[in-house]
Amino acid sequence: MTKGTQAKGKRHTKIHTMCARCGKHSFHCQKKTCSSCGFPAATLRKYNWAVKSLRRRTTGTGRCAHLKEVQRRFNAGTLLKH
User: Fold this and answer.
1) What is the pTM (predicted TM-score) of this model?
2) Which of 8, 34, 55, 62 has its CB 3.0 to 4.6 Å from that of 19, i.e. a possible disulfide?
């Protein structure tokens, strides 16, 4: 078997599939881990050498539904009462 055209015909199995957490096509079927977010690990996969990747998924890129509510309550003064 050579490395060229003949070898390309052998490729008919899926290695990565959809991830349940991040929704990307990065979940490794055999390893059972996501190459993008690290699922099923509890902490999200992130590295400081991947600055652009951190920028894409950091706080503020989504809806911030909970954070918006916290900010609203803080401004109203309800979080300051002990």
Assistant:
1) 0.74
2) 34
